[in-house]
Each structure stands twice: as C-alpha cells, then as structure tokens.
Amino acid sequence: MANILIVDDDKAILDLIDNILSKSGHYIKKVSKPEKVLQENLSYYHLIILDIMMPGTDGFELCSEIREQVDCPILFLTAKVDEGDIIKGLGLGADDYLTKPFGVQELRARIDAHLRREQREKVNSINIGYVRFSILSKECFILDNKVPLTKSEYEISEYLALHHGQVFSKEQIFEAVFGFERESNLSIIVEHIKNIRAKFLLYGEEPIKTVWGVGYKWD
Predict the structure, then answer these.
(1) DNA-binding region located at which positions (predicted)?
(2) In terms of C-beta distances under 8 Å and separation of at least 24 residues, what long-range contacts does 24-31 make, across chains too?
C-alpha cells in the first residue's frame, strides 16, 4: 500500500483515479485546488500525480516547487502530447507522463512500476572511471561532485553503467527502468538521456554513447 497524492482541477478525474487506485489498497489524497498542494506534508506521499493544465498554478510550476521538497516519483497527466511539454516536464523533475484519456490497466501498471522502483532494496556502490554510484542513496558523483540527476535519470544511468559496454534499445531501457513494456512515447527515454548527458558534460564526462540504429551504451 502506498500514499498517493493526486492533483487535478477536474473532480471527475480525481474520483476516477481514486476509485481505481483505492481498489489496489492505496491511500489516496485528492486535491482540486493546486494552490493548496504546498500546504500538504509532501514527505508523507510515495508518489504524486499532477495534471498539467490547471488554473492559476499549473502542473509545471507545482512540479518545480514540489521537487524542492521531496524526491518521490511524479507522474504528469496531460491532454496534450506536444513534445515540448514532455521535455519541459522531465526537465523540471517529473519521472513520467500519462496521456488523457488513459486506460485503467495502464494507470495501474504505471503506478505499480514506479512504486516497485522505490521499494527495491539496494546496497553497495559502483565506480566506473571517475563516476561513482551510491546505490543505497541513489546518488551519482563525478569525483567529489554530486550530479543533480532526477530519479528516472539516475535509474537509467545506473542501469546502463551496471551493464557498461552493452548496447540497449530504447524499448529495453524503458522496460528495465520503468518495469513494464511500452510501445509508444519512447521519446521519454531520448529526452531523459539528453538531460543526463547535459548534466555529465558540466563535469567533462560523456559516458553514454549512441549506437546508431540500435540504442545506447555506457562506454
């Protein structure tokens, strides 16, 4: 069972998601007024679902403010499929997005996958060149510098690093990191990797290589 916060100005959507996830045993808190979200004890929640298009404070602004307080998975709900919005959301620290209208099974699978990711027991650390992964705390360092990766960026980096030298397709990375198969919207992996590369490049490192026509590898 997990504590899940849902933020959407559409009360019908709130009730629908509440009904779906409550049946899986989760505790659901519904918020229809985005300006009230920051009054919540955000550390109480294991996962947060945010609508993007809301009056006043939109999902992008909320995501940015929430990320300053907690690092739990954030999943965007969006009626828009504009790639620019997806890129913007991931850059602000979101982990994933779900397009409206969505299917019941897809919602459950997506939520369960992110929660399983959070619950995995991790010990140890690994070092590859100047890059060190603290697997217990889910942090990545280049020498003494902490690389400011989001959760999803960290998971992708760790997965590729643990299998360094091996090439993975976008589909394989998505399934390994998020825990379920997905045939569409694999651009989310492309954008995450763009963000990862930009953050590593700040410290002079370029560990993720593109193998054209195949996928990516940690070199």
Answers:
(1) 123-219
(2) 24/108, 24/111, 24/112, 25/1, 26/1, 26/2, 26/111, 27/1, 27/2, 27/3, 28/4, 29/3, 29/4, 29/5, 30/6, 31/5, 31/6, 31/7
What is the phi/psi pair of residue 71, to 5°?
-125, 20
- For 11, 26, 38, 202, the CA distances from 152, given in Å and listed in that order, are 29, 22, 23, 19
Q: Kindly state the average pLDDT of the residues 59-77.
A: 88
Pick from 8, 214, 171, 184: nearest CA to 86:
184
Q: Which residues contact 36 (CB under 8 A, 6 or more apart)?
A: none
Last residue of a domain, one of 72, 94, 119: 119
Q: Are 17 and 81 members of one domain?
A: yes
Question: What pTM was estimated for this model as a whole?
Answer: 0.62
| 113 & 133 share domain | no
Q: How confident is the model at residue 94 (pLDDT cuts 50, 70, 90)?
A: confident
CA distance linking residue 71 with residue 154, whole number of Å: 12
**Same domain assignment for residues 105 and 184:** no
Domain that holds residue 142: 125-218
